[in-house]
Amino acid sequence: MEEKLNYKEAMAEIESIVALLEENKLDVDELSAKVKRVSQLIAFCKSKLHDTEEEVENILKSMEE
């Protein structure tokens, strides 16, 4: 994902798309694109969480030395 996005913004966008899906407010033409976007956002969030976890672990290890 090339855009500048943070975790909070990604989660907010996911939540807004899910709300549209739950309320049946997406037409067939939008559905595929929105589902693809949610998939990209979820991958971004998972990556961000993984990177943050590794960073915290490295900080904690360096404090033990």
UniProtKB/TrEMBL annotation:
Protein's name in the database: Exodeoxyribonuclease VII small subunit
Gene3D superfamilies assigned: Exonuclease VII, small subunit (1.10.287.1040)
GO biological process: DNA catabolic process
Family per similarity comment: Belongs to the XseB family.
EC numbers on record: 3.1.11.6
Keyword Protein transport in annotation: no
The keyword Hydrolase is annotated on this UniProt entry: yes
Stretches of the chain forming a coiled coil according to its record: 4-41
Organism, as annotated: Odoribacter laneus YIT 12061
Pfam families xrefs: Exonuc_VII_S
Keywords on record: Coiled coil, Cytoplasm, Exonuclease, Hydrolase, Nuclease
Annotated GO CC locations: exodeoxyribonuclease VII complex
A Gene Ontology molecular function term of the record: exodeoxyribonuclease VII activity
